[in-house]
Write a structure and sequence with these properties.
Hypothetical Protein Ychn, Chain: A; 4 helices; 21% strand; alpha/beta; 5-stranded parallel sheet
Length: 117
């Protein structure tokens, strides 16, 4: 089963990105037949920035995304959203690629389930 998670919210301030990544981790750990993809849009593109420092005991979106990328989960960030926020020159987490709306459209067509956060 192909599952696409579209995340729109910033990494911190609400728990939408956190909960989306928790679900992605659970799907990859507990359902081997599930193919998970993540597309970051709007303020969620900041989830892909490196150097996130959070207090001890607090979740860290960078660590969560790195873990997913290391498991082979494809993660893409909307290029228009990246540009609108002036992030094009900043370092992104290894494995996260800047992408396009055309790529998102393709992923939607290929997905059995699309979840938005």
């Amino acid at each position: 089963m192909n599952i696409l998670l579209i995340i729109n919210d910033a990494p911190y301030g609400s728990e939408k990105a956190y909960n989306a990544l928790r679900l992605a981790l659970t799907l990859t750990n507990e359902h081997e037949s599930a193919s998970v993809r993540i597309f970051l849009m709007a303020d969620a593109v900041t989830c892909a920035l490196t150097g996130q420092k959070t207090p001890d005991g607090f979740y860290n979106i960078e660590r969560m995304l790195k873990g997913l990328c290391s498991k082979g989960v494809m993660v893409k960030a909307c290029g228009t959203c990246v540009d609108a926020r002036g992030l094009r020159q900043l370092a992104l987490i290894d494995g996260v690629e800047i992408s396009t709306m055309a790529q998102l459209a393709q992923w939607v067509v290929e997905a059995d389930k699309v979840l938005t956060f």
